[in-house]
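[job 0412] stage=complex_fold ligand=coproporphyrinogen III status=START
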Amino acid sequence: MEPKHPFLRACLRLPVERTPIWIMRQAGRYLPEYRASRGEAGDFLSLCRNTPLATEVTMQPLRRFNLDAAILFSDILVVPEAMGVPLRFATGEGPILEPPIRSADDVKRLRRIEPEKDLDYVMNAVGSIREALDDKVPLIGFSGSPWTLATYMIEGGSSKTFPNIKGMLYDQPTLLDTILDRLVEAVADYLNAQIDHGAQAVQIFDTWGGALSPKAYRAFSLEPMRRIVEKLKPTGPDGQRVPVILFSKGCGGMLEHLVASGCDVVGLDWTINIGEARKRANGAVALQGNMDPAVLYASPDRIREEARTLLEAYGPHPGHIFNLGHGISPDMNPDHVAALVDAVHSESARLHGNGSS
Ligand code: CP3
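[job 0412] stage=complex_fold status=DONE, emitting C-alpha cells
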C-alpha cells in the first residue's frame, strides 16, 4: 500500500503535490520553549531520558511550523553510552566520552546492547511521540553511523583532526574494523527496535564521513553503513515500507557509491548542486537537502529566493525532500524558519503544477 504522507512518498520517489520539508535539529536551542523544557529536565541527557519532556520538545517545532516530519528527540551518543562508554556533556565543551576506546583491551569493555532494555527510554519516547503525532506527520528515527560514533568513542569527544582514530585506521586497521563491526551490530539492532516501536523512516547521521579519503571512506564509513542497511527491517508493524536515509556530510563526491548502498534516500550537504546530484543519482534514490543553513541568517525575501532556486535546480521530478545541508544553528531566528517552510510549500506547489499551496 502506498503511503499517504508526502514525506514518505517523496522518500519512495512517488509523486507529491508539494515538496515536503523537515529540518535537521529542528528541536533545539533556537526555540525558547526548548530551552525552557531543558531547564525543567535539568540537563540535556536528562531531557533525552524523560519521556513526556522528550515528546514535548519533539512536538515544539511542529506547533510553530508546517513541517512534514518529526524526528525523535535523542542523541547519537546514547549508543556508545549503552555499550559501556561513559558519556557526559560539559557546558561549552560538547560531549565527553571517558575513558575512550584506544586498544584491544579497551574493546573488551564494549557490551552488546539490548535496545529494549539498555535504551528503553528511547523506545518509550518513540511510542509516546507516535501517540502525540496522531498520524498527522510521520516520525523519523535515527542513529549515528559506525564511523561517526567511533570518532567520538576513540577521540573521547569531538575532534577536528581525529588523531587517534586516524592513527588507528592506518596503523591498526583490523582493530578499527573490530570496533566498527560491534557498532554495525549495535546500530542495526537499535534502529530495528525503533522500527518495531513505530519509527516510520530512519536516518543514519554520518557527520564525519567527509574527514576521510575516498578509499578510507568506502572501507570504514560506507561499508559499515551498507551492512546496516542490509540488516534493517524493510517494513514496520503497520506493513508500511520504512525508508532509510544516509547522510554523509561532505561526501557529495561519493554520491554514486552512496546510491549503490541500498538506501532509499541520500542526504546532501550544501557543497553540491542538487540538480547535478539528481542527474548523477539517475533516479535510483531520492535526495534530501541541501540548503546552506546560513541562508537562514538572511531576510525572509532572500530565503524564499534561495528556496525557489534550489527547488528549481531539482526540478519537477519526484524524490526530493527539502532540508538544510546540516543542522540549524542555535542562534537562528525562528521567524526565518517559518519563512523557509512556507516558501518551500508554496514555491514547490507551483513547480509541481498546483497553483495554490
Ligand atoms: O534533529 C533533531 O531535532 C533531533 C535531535 C538530535 C540531537 N542530536 C539533539 C541535540 C539529533 C538528530 C542529534 C544528532 C547528533 N548528535 C549528531 C549528528 C547530527 C549532526 O549534527 O551532524 C552529532 C554529531 C551529535 C553529537 C552531539 N550532540 C554534539 C557534538 C552535541 C553538542 C553540540 C552543541 O552544539 O553543543 C550534542 C548535543 C545536542 N544534541 C543538542 C541537541 C538539541 C544540544 C544540547 C543542548 O540542549 O545544549
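The radius of gyration is 19 Å.
[job 0412] exit 0
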